[in-house]
């Protein structure tokens, strides 16, 4: 029988880079047409007026203006005013 427990896998196993998701433009920031506001998986934040949704649920500006976050029916939303 062994008197030393065998070692497990290391915690630093993943060598792939992150996906760089998250909020790219915060509330009050100016955006131009086509600029990405949020990269996300699923519709955690929904698009409102002046915001388009990509096929991977990326939210982007469809017009120039200022980013505004708000809640609608308990859901987090973003619009460009």
Topology (SSEs and partners):
Blueprint: E1 22-23, E2 30-31, E3 36-39, E4 46-47, E5 51-53, E6 59-61, E7 65-72, E8 75-80
Name the features.
single chain, 81 residues, mainly beta, OB fold (Dihydrolipoamide Acetyltransferase, E2P), four-stranded antiparallel beta sheet, four-stranded mixed beta sheet, 8 strands
Write up this protein.
The chain is mainly β and 81 residues long. The protein has one domain: OB fold (Dihydrolipoamide Acetyltransferase, E2P) (Beta Barrel). 0% of the residues lie in helices and 37% in strands. It has no helices and eight strands. The strands form two sheets. It has a four-stranded antiparallel beta sheet with strand order 1-3-6-5, with no helix packed on it. Strand 5 (51-53) and strand 6 form a beta hairpin. The chain is elongated and about 70 Å long. The mean pLDDT is 92.
Provide the CATH architecture.
Beta Barrel
Structural class: mainly beta
Shape: elongated
Share of helical residues: under 10%
Number of helices: 0
End-to-end Cα distance: 71 Å
CATH fold descriptor:
OB fold (Dihydrolipoamide Acetyltransferase, E2P)
The radius of gyration over CA amounts to: 20 Å
Low-confidence stretches: none
Strand residue content: 35-45%
Number of domains: 1
CATH H-level superfamily title: RNA polymerase II/Efflux pump adaptor protein, barrel-sandwich hybrid domain
Name of the CATH first level: Mainly Beta
Strand order within the widest beta sheet? 1-3-6-5
């Amino acid at each position: 029988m062994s008197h030393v427990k065998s070692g497990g896998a290391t915690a630093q196993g993943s060598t792939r880079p992150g996906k760089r998701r998250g909020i790219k433009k915060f509330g009050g920031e100016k955006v131009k047409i086509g600029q990405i506001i949020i990269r996300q998986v699923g519709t955690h934040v929904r698009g409102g007026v002046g915001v388009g949704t990509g096929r991977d649920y990326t939210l982007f500006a469809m017009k120039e203006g200022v980013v505004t976050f708000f809640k609608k029916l308990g859901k987090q939303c973003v619009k460009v005013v």
